[in-house]
Design brief:
heteropentamer, B: 166 residues, mainly alpha, C: 111 residues
């Protein structure tokens, strides 16, 4: 609860900050302070101290898992602000508003990480989506940005329609919006519920950009200003997956057998399309968009498996994926040219950037000693523990092998090809230090994932 | 056939017809007007179902506010029929068939299920009255009510950010 | 009224909305069709609410079963309103730039 | 997990690791060279010390298990038994040789080069020492990554593609290995990755069947045996020679070692089921590689293919599952490493002076550099297992074991003895004998330190060849243990 | 004394190390001295050993130095075995070896110091390996020597490594040997499997209880090894080419010692051969065939060394005939005598070549009799000895083999005799063309023709004497009862076999008749040859018909080349260019290509059209509905 209310308040605060101090650099620091506050508040709640005592009527429930995920999301946001805060302000005149919107998104994030009623899910998802439509289009003069925004908006609201239809059918079948109240599986599944589940899965898959509902992702990620792409592709995506898992675990867990095949199909499709399509990309930004689809495929495994291993894995995956991708985008923003060749000679001109991005890429590729390895490892174990649809694991592994191809193309450009001029704009030493710290976290989680996971058992 | 049923069929027919007109009329302005008609029909259904509050809100919010907004925008851009040249037939048919099959599949799935015998109570039941709804809303649903304010805030900020000249 | 009637009606409206989304190129019309879909959903929700109410009221006259669905409709309208404001803003922004609302002009981003 | 340094296995891993990390920060070329040489020599010295504590009562010094990931039942467990000892010996001996032999070459950004080399050494040590499946997998990859960077940063003109092929190919293989490991892990009674519980796990014949291939493909790619070898010639040809030495001398042993350590004991039924397939493959590979070697014109490719042929024999002898071939194999893993490193050093010295590796363009070097010629002849003949050289002992026993398994296999494999003689002598003839030409006219006798290094290798070759008993003493008990496990 | 056996091979090894490592330091004289001295030392030791062995009631001594390969179920010690057979070979090797070292010291004097030292290093290494071969107490040690001598012959044939053809010859020799060695190895593995050991002492007692089939297999495989080492059909072709090496090398390795390794090995494992049903016949037939075949080729050769080479092959064939028919003593006897007179002949040839400034074609010689008296005389003795004219050594040994053959089957005898006649013919052809008639060489050759220095002539003389008298160690008992000392001496070695063979004596009358006939025929042939080639004229017209075939050695090399080498090469090229590039590589790269291709295809889905995106979404939805509702 702390997080929800505080983030909403902080959103408002940022609005006024915008009015007060236009778009000065200091805006960034207010935002950073805000996130810190958020982290503290959330941590306190995690530790059992809740500022507000509101009767939520069972529409929300704050589990350690959800709160821990909020932690991950907020920390990622902090790093994101620290690394790319100034770039956020360079997108347009009203930087403060962008921060405000992002705080609203965080509010939505902390709602979907704790919802218990489909109504809250709906509202949470909308609170996440609407600001993103704006952020996608925030580079107003840029046609690509416009296009991204409109595409995102149209398809987003279409999927909202599907989701509402699903909710309605579920309601028709069960007579309630509460996940707890549905007591599915107790009775034989009715077509109403069945269709409802399908529609819910489809709309969630859409939000999580899982194939074949992923088509918006590359265009939107490619078109939006890179800073916001970074935000959308990491924190938001992870949040959607938490909601996804929560919905299907608490809501339809008992009916797993009836939808597992569908989940498996979506997972496999996502893995294959994401990885294979990424192979041929020419722009790193777009490649990262596809790679985010590919990663989504792996996260889907948690939904498919629906077991503790999967939950832990999803948490770890969110952390690993967010850290690596945010770092990578932070570097990408500094590049003059977003194509692969744009990275040529980075190692010579900016060794720190090259080193850290290498670590991030290795993590995304799931190489041992990086957090990426263990997140993939947990997912695979989770999938194998279910003891069925082993082919899915094989698909996953093959795709992981393919993913190496496009991740390492970047490494090749950075280290083994050379360019006369420095490929980046000037970067400060603080930025580098921060990148190093982030990379350090990635490696730390890669050596001892327990640091994060053991908190779950608290 | 009671008056209710007559009304029901009439409104249903109206809703479907004007919905189709929304999709197929060439001129955007006409589409808007047909959509308003759909809303009226639906409101009518609400009244039959004795959900008076929603019926009114539907008219006020949708037909009143939203559609007017649409109308403004369309007028603003003075889009008339010519602005949309005929798109390629193939996609048109594909879309129609896809949508149609969607409907068929859902109906086929739902036509004879546990709901077959169920009735939706018409003309009776006062949960749709504003007083009851208000009670429930501010007793049980206060939290989402509050939170939806965040939604509005963000929408507002968004509209401002997008709309502001710079 | 048998609930199936409402279901069929709602599904029909919903599908018409979908068809509209698929077949029209004018962003505004597409958006309107989405609104149509939402309304179908609303109608269905209300119908269901009354259905559940009908089931519940026989045992307990004072029940408020079904109210939550109507409130959900209310929230949907709220959200729809918010969406419309944002959506139209985006469309207008785009119109400012390319003087068209034809979604097929939006294909700079592909492959 | 970074607990006490009170035992050999841990030290053998930390020493190269620390050495490597340090050398990243030594930017002066001369000092980083000497540092890395020193570090590798320290490792060797440490290993030499460990040889005095091999007996049972110092077991604590040779085995260690740190808490690592209790939540998933994996611990950082290391063990220095006969099998790992012989391969650590190889690793420890090779690196000083390599560093010393290539001392004269100067690389761009040497600190990175030597750092990565030492990291590779760390990874290799880890692979040989770890007795925890997950740790094993970690090191398996850790050995691969630096190698990838080494090849594609400092290699020949087609280095990037070659290295990339090498990396993706082996990485894909190891992913299947990972699946296999996870599957077995889920089957273990105590949900643990430790070697012991892996050995205890009960699997149906069917499971063993496909798990066997999950594991074996990964190992086979690493060895590599026919037809998984396609990455190898390119990688060897393109790598800087120092790296080639590591790849061919030590890294290919990872596959064989892993097969011994993890595969055969875990899936006895599958091994019995597929032994003919694997041995058949290996033998086909031997003959295939030997034939291809006949027509190679590039020294590096020639050596690469001859290596494939020899590895084929080793792979085959793993699956004959009798004590003789097993012991022969363990000894041969060491000998082959030494010999092939010697060969690479010679190739390196030739290329250093002439700048070419084309056999057809060389000739008459024996007139200019008799010492080099003699060393080469000795090493090359050792490579084709002439008696009284080290390789003879190993190959003799492996052949004997193979014969025990099936005389026909032995006979078929024996053909490679002849072929190997043909291509080796061709190489000697065309490179060292005959008359000088424009390229070789200006060839000079090799330098003293190079001579000393080669001489050390030659001495090693003869010593082991005449008196292999010390090596047998190292591996005897372990090999008997493995076979014993298997028989029961 | 036998305890010190290890010193015998040690001395040459030391010599090798000194000469090899210090080849730049030691001056020529020293190098030669070390080389010869080391061999002399081991010769003296061998004599001492022999003295010990020859006393009656000497039992086999096994000297174990250290354990070489020791694994569960197999223990191969590094051990030597001293018995009559090995001691005899010790004498031959070290004795002849010493003489040839001395000879070489003079013969090679033109070489530069380091190459000179290298030469002696190789020579010592050879002696060392040869001694290992005959001393080894088990087949593995024997195999070590076996491959060792192969290596040395490779090194020495290619001694003048600048010459491509020589290198090729060296390579050929090594590879041919390796083919044989494979057979040997397989036999060893089989023995390991069968007897669980490789030691003579363990195996031979067990042989009696072994299945004949197994014995046949093992012995045949061993014989394959022998054909490689001792240049029998089909692996003989390397030996004539091996003449590329310096002449003393040919004398030592390719005449006196190494090539007889096969005979030694079979004699050593005689019991197995005796008990194996098929093998002896095979050995006899192959031996005889080789004897005849090589003899025919020798007739038309004009290179002095080539003639001798083919005669060696033929003589070896005769020895194998002896082994095949069970006349082990005879075979060993012939090895000994052959060692003397063939070494003599080669050294003589060397002396001629030396005098003629490396002219080897006998058509350009002739009339050297007066220029090289000693060489001429000794060479003549050699010819008589090899031709088998009593009382020279060749007669006795050859006669013993032939008698053995006759006892087995007359056919073998007559073919063998025929090859003996051919031998006489080409030897005296050689002699006549070289020494008789008038000089056919160039002018300045004629000027420089001179008798070789003492260091070369002395060994000739010594060998000549041996060639004359050596025969008397084995006088057949038709002439004198129990005069066959050698047989008695070797009896313990062959005891088991002789027990199995049983006696089939030939009546003295028949024996006399056969001997007489043979000797007579040989004399006739000899005179004919001397007459025919006594004053040979160079003729331009090339040989025709059958003679042509013989001149070209039955085109065997060409056949081998066409049947084995070329196809193998072609196959390898195919593998390298097609299999490797297209198939093995193609599959892997193909996978990558396929992924790239499908990636390019998938990208078209991403059309950028919202309409199509949503369309796909809707279709997918419908599909999922169907799966969900009607799926089950």
């Amino acid at each position: 609860m702390n997080a929800i209310i505080l983030s909403a308040v902080l959103g408002v605060v940022m609005m006024y900050t915008g009015i007060a101090m236009k778009n000065r650099p200091s805006v960034k620091y207010v935002a950073i302070a805000g996130v810190l506050l958020l982290i503290v508040a959330n941590w306190l709640e995690f530790a059992g101290v809740s500022f507000f005592s509101i009767d939520v009527k069972g529409m929300l429930s704050f589990t350690s898992f959800g709160l821990l995920f909020n932690m991950v999301a907020f920390v990622s946001t902090l790093i994101y602000f620290l690394l790319s805060g100034s770039d956020v302000q360079q997108v347009g005149k009203n930087g403060a508003d962008y921060f405000a919107l992002m705080f609203f998104v965080l509010c939505g994030v902390s709602i979907v990480s704790s919802f218990q009623s489909l109504l809250m899910l709906f509202i949470g998802i909308e609170i996440i989506s609407i600001p993103l439509y704006i952020l996608a289009g925030s580079d107003k003069r840029n046609l690509k940005s416009n296009e991204a925004s409109l595409k995102y908006f149209l398809m987003g609201s279409f999927s909202t329609g599907l989701m509402l239809m699903g909710i309605t059918l579920l309601y028709g079948g069960t007579g309630t919006f509460y996940l707890s109240g549905m007591n599915l599986g107790g009775v034989v599944m009715t077509p109403l519920v069945g269709l409802g589940i399908v529609l819910m899965m489809i709309s969630m898959a859409f939000k999580a950009s899982a194939a074949p509902f992923h088509f918006w992702t590359p265009d939107v990620y490619d078109g939006s200003p890179t800073v916001f792409t970074s935000f959308m592709a990491t924190i938001v995506k992870a949040a959607v997956f938490i909601a996804f898992l929560r919905l299907f675990e608490n809501g339809f867990g008992k009916l797993q057998s009836t939808w597992q095949l569908m989940a498996a199909m979506i997972t496999a499709l996502t893995l294959i399309i994401g990885n294979v399509t990424a192979v041929f990309q020419q722009s790193v930004k777009r490649m990262l968009a596809y790679s985010s689809i590919a990663q989504a495929g792996f996260m889907m495994l948690a939904v498919f498996a629906l077991n503790t291993m999967g939950k832990q894995g999803l948490l770890l995956y969110s952390a690993a994926y967010c850290l690596a991708t945010i770092g990578l985008f932070a570097v990408l923003i500094k590049m003059k040219d977003y194509t692969f060749d744009g990275f040529n000679g980075l190692a010579r001109h900016q060794p720190v950037l090259a080193l850290t991005s290498t670590i991030f890429l290795l993590s995304l590729a799931g190489i041992p000693l990086t957090a990426g390895f263990f997140s993939k490892y947990y997912m695979l174990v989770a999938a194998m523990k279910t003891g069925q649809m082993f082919w899915l694991v094989i698909v996953g592994v093959v795709c992981a092998a393919i993913s190496v191809y496009y991740y390492f193309r970047v490494i090749q450009s950075m280290y083994f090809k050379d360019a006369a001029v420095t490929p980046t704009v000037a970067v400060g030493s603080g930025f580098k230090a921060l990148l190093l710290i982030t990379a350090g976290m990635v490696i730390l989680l890669g050596i001892k994932p327990g640091l994060l996971l053991n908190l779950m058992s608290i | 056939m009671s008056i209710t049923e007559v009304l029901f069929w009439f409104l249903t027919a109206l809703a479907l017809l004007s919905a189709l007109m929304v999709v197929f009329s060439r001129n955007p302005v006409h589409s808007v007007l047909w959509l308003i008609a759909v809303f009226f029909a639906i409101s009518g259904h609400y009244i039959i179902l004795n959900a008076q509050f929603l019926a009114i809100v539907n008219l006020i919010v949708y037909a009143g506010a939203i559609m007017v907004l649409f109308l403004f925008v369309i007028m603003l851009m003075n889009l008339n029929a010519e602005t949309e040249p005929q798109k390629n037939r193939w996609l048109w048919w594909a879309g129609t068939i896809a949508g149609g099959s969607l409907m068929l599949v859902i109906i086929a799935a739902l036509k004879d299920t546990e709901t077959k015998t169920q009735m939706a109570l018409v003309k009776g039941g006062d949960i749709g009255l504003i007083q009851n709804l208000g009670m429930v809303l501010f007793k049980d649903y206060v939290l989402p009510f509050e939170i939806s304010s965040v939604l509005f805030l963000s929408a507002m900020v968004g509209a401002v950010v997008i709309g502001k000249k710079d | 009224m048998p609930i199936n009637y409402y279901i069929f009606l709602a599904v029909a409206l919903f599908s018409i909305g979908v068809i509209g989304v698929l077949t029209r190129r004018n962003a505004i019309i597409v958006f309107m069709c989405i609104e149509l879909m939402l309304n179908a959903v609303n109608l269905l929700l209300v119908a269901f609410s009354k259905m559940h109410y009908a089931n519940a009221v026989t045992f307990n006259p004072g029940t408020t079963t079904g109210a939550e669905a109507q409130l959900f409709v209310f929230f949907i309208m709220v959200v729809a309103a918010a969406e419309v404001s944002v959506g139209l803003a985006i469309i207008v922004m785009m119109y400012r730039n390319i003087h068209s609302v034809d979604i097929n002009f939006l294909n700079r981003l592909k492959h | 997990m970074f607990a006490a340094f009170d035992n050999f296995p841990a030290l053998l891993i930390w020493l190269p690791l620390i050495g490597g990390l340090l050398s990243f920060f030594i930017t002066n070329e001369r000092s980083v060279k000497s540092w890395s040489l020193l570090s590798s020599i320290l490792t060797l010295a440490l290993f030499a010390v460990s040889l005095f504590y091999t007996d049972q009562k110092h077991y604590a010094l040779n085995s260690v298990s740190y808490v690592w990931l209790p939540e998933i039942g994996s611990s950082f467990a290391l063990l220095l038994d006969g099998m790992s000892r012989i391969l650590c010996l190889l690793t420890a001996v090779s690196f000083p040789l390599i560093f010393a032999a290539t001392y004269s070459t100067s690389y761009k950004s040497p600190n990175a080069f030597y750092g990565l080399m030492l990291l590779t050494q760390c990874g290799l040590m880890g692979v040989f020492l770890s007795v925890d499946a997950l740790a094993f997998y970690f090191f398996w990859e850790l050995a691969l990554i630096p190698a990838y960077f080494l090849v594609s940063q400092w290699g020949g003109e087609k280095r990037i593609q070659a290295a990339f092929k090498f990396f993706i190919y082996t990485f894909a293989g190891s992913l299947f290995l990972l699946i296999g490991i996870i599957y077995v892990y889920l089957k273990t009674p105590d949900q643990s990755f430790s070697l012991v519980s892996f050995y205890q796990v009960q699997l149906t014949a069917g499971e063993q069947g496909w798990l066997f291939w999950m594991f074996f493909v990964a190992f086979a790619i690493k060895m590599p045996i026919f037809p998984f070898h396609t990455w190898q010639p390119d990688a060897y040809e393109q790598s800087p020679t120092a790296v080639t030495m590591v790849l061919s001398g030590i890294m290919v042993k990872m596959g064989l070692f892993a097969t011994l350590r993890w595969l055969i004991v875990m899936f006895p039924d599958a091994v019995r089921q597929f032994d003919n397939v694997v041995i058949g493959l290996s033998i086909v590979g031997m003959l295939y590689a030997s034939c291809v070697a006949l027509v190679q014109d590039d020294l590096k490719r020639l050596v690469a293919y001859s290596s494939i042929a020899h590895i084929g024999l080793m792979a085959a002898s793993v699956f004959t599952l009798n004590l003789m071939s097993l012991q022969g194999l363990l000894v041969q893993m060491f000998n082959h490493g030494i010999n092939i490193i010697g060969l690479w050093i010679v190739v390196f010295l030739i290329e250093k002076q002439t700048g070419i590796r084309k056999i057809s363009h060389l000739g008459g070097l024996a007139q200019k550099a008799p010492a080099l010629a003699i060393m080469l002849v000795v090493i090359a003949l050792a490579n084709i297992a002439l008696p009284l050289t080290n390789a003879f002992v190993g190959e003799f026993m492996m052949f004997a074991g193979l014969y025990k398994f099936s005389p026909w296999y032995a006979a078929a494999a024996g053909l490679s003895i002849i072929l190997s003689a043909v291509y080796t002598l061709n190489m000697i003839k065309n490179v060292f004998y005959g008359n000088l030409n424009a390229v070789t006219q200006g060839f000079k006798e090799i330098l003293l330190h190079e001579r000393i290094i080669l001489a050390m290798i030659v001495v090693l070759i003869f010593f082991v060849g005449v008196y292999p008993e010390p090596l047998f003493n190292i591996i005897r008990s372990t090999s008997e243990m493995i076979i014993g496990k298997f028989i029961k | 004394m036998t305890k010190l056996t290890y010193l015998i091979p040690l001395f040459p090894l030391i010599g090798f190390l000194i000469n090899g490592l210090g080849r730049r330091m030691v001056p020529k004289s020293v190098a030669g001295l070390i080389g010869s001295a080391s061999v002399l030392a081991s010769f003296i030791l061998s004599v001492l050993v022999f003295m010990e062995v020859r006393v009656d009631g000497f039992t086999v001594q096994e000297v174990k130095l250290f354990s070489f390969i020791k694994t569960a179920g197999l223990d191969i010690p590094f051990a030597f075995q001293i018995d009559q057979l090995s001691s005899l070979f010790l004498l031959i090797i070290t004795g002849v070896g010493f003489l040839i070292h001395v000879y070489s010291a003079a013969y090679m004097h033109e070489e530069e110091p380091q190459h000179y030292a290298r030469y002696f290093a190789y020579l010592n290494l050879f002696v060392f390996s040869m001694l290992l071969l005959v001393l080894g107490a088990n087949y593995v040690i024997m195999f070590i020597g076996w491959e060792g001598v192969g290596l040395c012959s490779y090194l020495l044939i290619g001694y003048w490594f600048k010459n491509g053809d020589y290198n090729h010859a060296a390579k050929k020799a090594f590879v041919m040997n390796r083919i044989g060695d494979l057979g040997f190895l397989l036999a060893v593995f089989w023995m390991i499997g069968q007897f669980g050991s490789t030691s003579f002492g363990v195996i031979f007692p067990k042989v009696g209880a072994t299945a004949p089939a197994v014995l046949t297999g093992i012995t045949l495989l061993l014989f394959v090894g022998a054909t490689g080492k001792s240049a029998q059909i089909p692996l003989y072709t390397w030996l004539p080419d091996a003449m590329a090496g310096p002449t003393p090398v040919s004398a030592l390795i390719h005449a006196a010692t190494m090539v007889t390794a096969g005979i030694y090995m079979i004699a050593r494992s005689n019991i197995m051969y005796t008990l194996a049903p098929v093998t002896p016949t095979v050995v006899a037939v192959i031996g005889l065939a080789t004897a005849l075949f090589a003899a025919t080729i020798a007739i038309k050769q004009n290179d002095i060394k080539k003639v001798l080479a083919y005669s060696t092959v033929s003589q070896l064939g005769l020895m194998f005939l002896g082994l095949g028919v069970g006349a082990y003593t005879g075979a060993v006897f012939h090895v000994m005598t052959h060692a003397f007179f063939k070494a003599l002949l080669f050294l003589g040839a060397g002396s001629v070549i030396h005098a003629m400034h490396h002219e080897q074609d006998i058509r350009n010689m002739g009339g050297l009799k007066k220029h090289l008296p000693i060489t001429h005389l000794t060479f003549l003795i050699g010819c008589i000895a090899i031709a088998g004219i009593p009382p020279f050594s060749g007669f006795f040994s050859k006669d013993e083999i032939l008698m053995g053959a006759f006892a087995h089957s007359p056919v073998l005898y007559f073919i063998g005799t025929f090859s003996a006649l051919l031998t006489a013919f080409y030897m005296f052809r050689l002699y006549a063309m070289t020494f008789l008639g008038q000089f056919r060489g160039t002018q300045e050759q004629q000027h420089h023709v001179h008798e070789s220095p003492a260091a070369m002539t002395v060994p000739l003389i010594v060998l000549a004497l041996l060639a004359i008298v050596a025969g008397f160690v084995g006088v057949p008992e038709v002439f004198a009862k129990d005069a066959h000392w050698l047989e008695k001496f070797l009896a313990p070695v062959f005891a088991a076999s002789t027990a199995k063979q049983g006696e089939h004596a030939i009546s003295h009358s028949t024996e006399y008749a056969l001997m007489g006939g043979t000797v007579l025929a040989i004399l006739v042939v000899m005179i004919y040859a001397l007459k025919k080639f006594g004053n040979f004229r160079k003729t331009a017209e090339p040989a025709t018909g059958f003679a042509r075939v013989l001149e070209n050695k039955w085109y065997v090399d060409e056949i081998y080349d066409a049947v084995i080498s070329r196809p193998l090469k072609g196959f390898s090229v195919f593998l390298n260019n097609v299999m490797e590039r297209s198939v093995i590589d193609g599959v892997v790269n193909g996978t990558g290509k396929f992924i790239q291709y499908s990636s390019r295809q998938f990208r078209w889905l991403q059309s950028g059209q919202v309409g199509s995106y949503i369309l796909i979404m809707v279709v997918a939805t419908v599909v999922f509905f169907i799966i969900q509702i009607f799926g089950k």
